[in-house]
Amino acid sequence: MVKLSCHHCGHYWDYQGKTKYYATCPNCRYKVRIQPEESIKPELKRRDLDSRKILTKEKKPKKLIGIAAIVSRVIEKHQQNKSMLIQILLQLQNDFGWLPREMLTEVSKQLEIPLNRVYQIATFYKAFSLAPRGRHLIRVCMGTSCKVRGATTILDKLQSTLEIEKDQTTPDGRFSLETVNCAGCCALGPVITIDGDYHGNLKVVDTEKILAKYK
Ligand code: FES
């Protein structure tokens, strides 16, 4: 039995084969010259050990934690496809509720897309939020059709009842207030949506009653 070490991967094993000159490394299949361990020069052994350490380090994939791990899972689900950036951000927004700066940086790093491109997308679409949102999201339609039917008064009423401006969240984290340019049902104007529920033909007096349903 001879103790052998592989110069390629650094693997050590007890060789019990029959061939005299060369053995196959059981780890990487590299051909290793048969040489009793005693005859290996100490410097060489040290070098091999070092290289083994380096190889082991390189082989182990870095374990991602926290935001990096969340982002990595979503990116893997989309096959690391750069053209799926919007879908990736949408999923992160849905899972996390908003897109913190660290998350956008991580997306840029892992997808190898410039950070300013990621920010461009995240700030262009209303679906994304770069700040934490409340438990319930109110969207007031400020499109022409809703505006001529009193959307501005509805927005004013919501702002005064909730004591916040648009694009803000109440201090108790219950509501966030936003505006949209068309909710897609102009005939029902004025329209607001809360968590995706539509409230059409809305009257100012009804707003508080509707808000009371969302705790
Ligand atoms: S303008 Fe308000 S729903 Fe279209």
Any descriptors?
5-stranded mixed beta sheet; 215 residues; 40% helix; alpha+beta; two-stranded antiparallel ribbon; Glutaredoxin; 3 domains; rod-shaped; binds FE2/S2 (inorganic) cluster
- Which CATH-level-2 architecture of the largest domain? 3-Layer(aba) Sandwich
User: What is the name of the CATH superfamily of the largest domain?
Assistant: Glutaredoxin
Each distinct ligand? FE2/S2 (inorganic) cluster
Order of strands across the biggest sheet?
Answer: 6-7-5-8-9
Structural class: alpha+beta
Distance between the termini: 75 Å
Helical amount among residues, as a percent range? 40-55%
The largest pleated sheet is described as: 5 strands, mixed
Number of domains as seen in the coordinates = 3
- Report the average pLDDT across residues: 85
Number of strands: 9
**Proportion of residues in β-strands:** 15-25%
Rg on CA atoms, Å: 31 Å
Q: Can you characterise this structure?
A:
By secondary structure, the chain is α+β, with helices and mostly antiparallel strands. It has three domains: 58 residues, no CATH class; 59 residues, no CATH class; 77 residues, Glutaredoxin (3-Layer(aba) Sandwich), CATH 3.40.30.10. 40% of the residues lie in helices and 16% in strands. The chain is built from eight helices and nine strands. The protein has a five-stranded mixed β-sheet with strand order 6-7-5-8-9, covered by helices on one side. A two-stranded antiparallel sheet has the order 1-2. A two-stranded antiparallel ribbon has the order 3-4. Strand 1 and strand 2 form a beta hairpin. The longest helix has 18 residues. The protein is rod-shaped. The N and C termini lie far apart (75 Å). The model has no long low-confidence stretch (mean pLDDT 85). The chain binds FE2/S2 (inorganic) cluster.
